[in-house]
Design goal:
A hairpin with a 3-residue loop joins strand 16 and strand 17. The strands form 2 sheets. The protein has a 14-stranded antiparallel β-sheet with strand order 2-3-6-7-8-9-10-11-12-13-14-15-16-17. The chain is an alpha+beta fold.
């Protein structure tokens, strides 16, 4: 009996060893990218290492999502665990838990691989440090700091009808301008709240509100997505409400544009080359 038990333990240990150290990470990544292209054409995932985890699931080290070979989102680590009974059905459910940009994210993804790849994603995140998102610097020429939390929903289960929404709150944030913008070197905000809605290739900014000691404001608009993503077109307009501290500093600029309720502004152009103007 002891000998049989020793054999069983030996087999278990050897199996675990080979499962971890000989896990076909590259083959697995290629398999995942095949399905990602079906879900989100033009996107792919890259990871430094893919390995099994316990409880049974998958652990990805330094995963990143790319669009046109440019990194869009990165993480330090992702753990993906299936709802085990769902593996027997067409629609498979996965639980996601990860670390990214000094923050944490978790969510649930329902995926159907046949006959066509379909995705239903609910993702929540918190304590994300904006300054560490390198891809943001591709679109914004200014230094942005702050801590973000929020949630994202995406669904493409109906043919030609991708849709989603997102709610994001950024606290204790600042924007440093180099060169200065209208003589302003930096703006600080206590809170930034935004709500987005996506239908097909159009993202609508339904709600945007900023609040700070120097400035407050609101805005609405839309972004028409394109490939590559930095070619996406922007059309956003709103109102800035300068506070006494800022008016004292650069009052001459706002006095010419000031209307009832604030100073109207507009952002147009593309993500890679946005144009900002006061109306």
């Amino acid at each position: 009996m002891k000998k049989w038990l020793s054999y069983i333990l030996y087999i278990v240990c050897v199996t675990i060893f080979f499962l971890y150290y000989l896990f076909p990470g590259k083959a697995f990544t290629s398999y995942i990218n095949h399905h990602i292209n079906g879900l989100l054409p033009g996107y792919k995932i890259s990871t430094d290492q893919a390995m099994p985890s316990f409880p049974p699931g998958l652990k990805l080290k330094s995963p990143a999502i790319y669009n046109q070979n440019k990194p869009i989102l990165c993480a330090d680590q992702l753990k993906i665990r299936p709802a085990y009974l769902s593996l027997l059905s067409i629609n498979k459910t996965f639980f996601i838990n990860g670390l990214a940009y000094d923050g944490h994210l978790e969510g649930i993804a329902d995926i159907a691989f046949k006959p066509e790849s379909k995705l239903n994603l609910n993702l929540a995140f918190k304590d994300i440090q904006i300054s560490q998102i390198q891809s943001l610097k591709e679109f914004v020429a200014y230094e942005i700091t702050g801590t973000a939390r929020g949630k994202i929903f995406f669904n493409n289960q109906k043919a030609n009808n991708d849709k989603g929404n997102a709610e994001i709150t950024i606290s204790d944030s600042s924007i440093k301008f180099n060169p200065s913008l209208f003589g302003i070197d930096q703006l600080s905000f206590t809170a930034i709240d935004a709500k987005f809605e996506m239908i097909r290739r159009k993202i609508t900014l339904n709600h945007f509100k900023i609040d700070g000691r120097q400035l407050s404001g609101d805005a609405k608009g839309f972004i028409n997505l394109a490939h590559p993503i930095n070619k996406s077109r922007i059309s956003i307009s709103g109102t800035l409400k300068p506070h006494p501290e800022l008016i004292k500093e650069i009052g001459s600029i706002f006095s010419k544009k000031m209307k009832k309720g604030g100073v109207p502004f507009r952002i147009s152009g593309t993500l890679e080359g946005p144009n900002f103007s006061l109306k």
